[in-house]
Amino acid sequence: MTASVFAMLSALVGNVVRVGQPWSQMLPSALGLIVVGYFFLRLAKASRQPQGRPQRLGA
To answer: What are phi and psi of 18, to 5 degrees?
Structure first.
């Protein structure tokens, strides 16, 4: 979902903004990669943290 939003934003800016070509096309793509990378790192960090002690049955 996030990659799709940034892809549409990149296409919009690339077609509408004529000043600063080709940077106006690459900046939204780079920003999207940074955001997706942030989400992957956050997910990896959350999966490494312990979720607490397991409950003992019959206690």
So the answer is: -95, -20
pTM for the model = 0.67
Write a three-state SS string for 10-54. Answer: HHHHHHHCCCCCCHHHHHHHHHHHHHHHHHHHHHHHHHHCCCCCC
Provide the mean pLDDT of the chain. 83
Q: Are 29 and 10 in contact (CB under 8 A)?
A: yes
CB 28 within 8 A of CB 6: yes
